[in-house]
Amino acid sequence: MEEGREAKQDRTMKRILLMISCIMLIISTSGGPLVSRLYFLHGGNRIWLSSFLQVAGFPIILLPLFVIRRRQINTVADSLKVKMATMKLPLFVFSAIIGLIIALDCYLYSYGSAHLPVISREAKHFGLGKTTYYVVLVGSAIIWQMGFIGGMGMIFCTSSLFTGVFGSLSVPITEILAVIFYKEKFQVEKGVSLVLSIWGFVSFFYGEYKQTKKELPQNDSVSNP
To answer: pLDDT digit string (tens) for 98-156?
Structure first.
C-alpha cells in the first residue's frame, strides 16, 4: 500500500517536472532568439557579447542541482548511504576541454570589456534606453539558461528524441511571435517552415501512439500466459 502511494507520488512529480520543463524550454527556444533580435534591432552590434550571454547565466543551473542534491540526502535515513557522483575519465577529459573553451570565452569577454568601452557606449545609444539595455542583457542570459534546464528536465522525464522534436516546435512559435512583436512579414519560407515543423511534431506523436497500441496486446499476453 505504501509502495503504491509512493509510486503514484513519483508519477505525479514526474508529470509536474515534465510540464515545467516544457514551459521553460518553449520560453527559452522561442524567447531567446527574440530577445537577441531585440538587442540588435535597437542599436546593439556586438556579436561576441550576444554569444557570451548564452552561457553567462550558467550559475542559475546550480540552484536546481543543489535542491535535487539536498532532497536526495534528506530522503535517505543515513546520509552516508548517498552515493557520490562519479565521472569516467573520457567524460572528465571532454568536460575539462569544454570548460577550458568556456574559460577562454570568458577571458576574451573580460579583455574586451577592459580595453573597449563597449557596454557603456552601447547603453547610452540603445534605442529603448539605458535601463532597458541592461534588462535585455540580463534577461537574455536567464532565458538561454532556462532552455538548458528545461532540456535536461525533459530528457530525464522522456527521452532525448522527444526533447529534440519538441524543441523543433519552437521554430514556428518564434516566427509567429516575430510577426506579432516585430511586425515582420510572414513570407512563404516561414509558412513552409511552420507546416514542416507541425507535420514532424504530429508525426512523432502519431508514431508513438501506433507503437504503444501495438505493444499493449504483447504486454497483456506476457502478463496473462
So the answer is: 878 876 766 675 566 555 555 557 777 788 888 888 888 888 888 888 888 888 888 88
* H-type alpha helices, the chain: 2-41, 47-56, 59-74, 89-115, 118-125, 130-157, 160-168, 170-182, 188-223
Rounded Cα distance between 130 and 224, Å, is: 69
**197 vs 16: CA distance, rounded Å:** 26
Is residue 44 within 8 Å of 50, Cβ to Cβ? yes
Determine the 3-state secondary structure of 128 from DSSP.
Answer: coil
Q: For 148-201, what is each residue's pLDDT tens digit?
A: 888 888 888 887 778 877 877 777 788 788 788 877 777 787 778 778 877 877
Enter the DSSP assignment of 87: -
Do residues 25 and 147 touch, judged by C-beta distance below 8 A?
A: yes
Question: For residue 52, what is its C-alpha cell?
Answer: 557570451
Cβ contacts of 118 within 8 Å, gap of 6 or more: 46, 49, 112
DSSP characters over 33-85: HHHHHHHHHTT---HHHHHHHHHHTTHHHHHHHHHHHHHHHHTSSSGGGSPPP
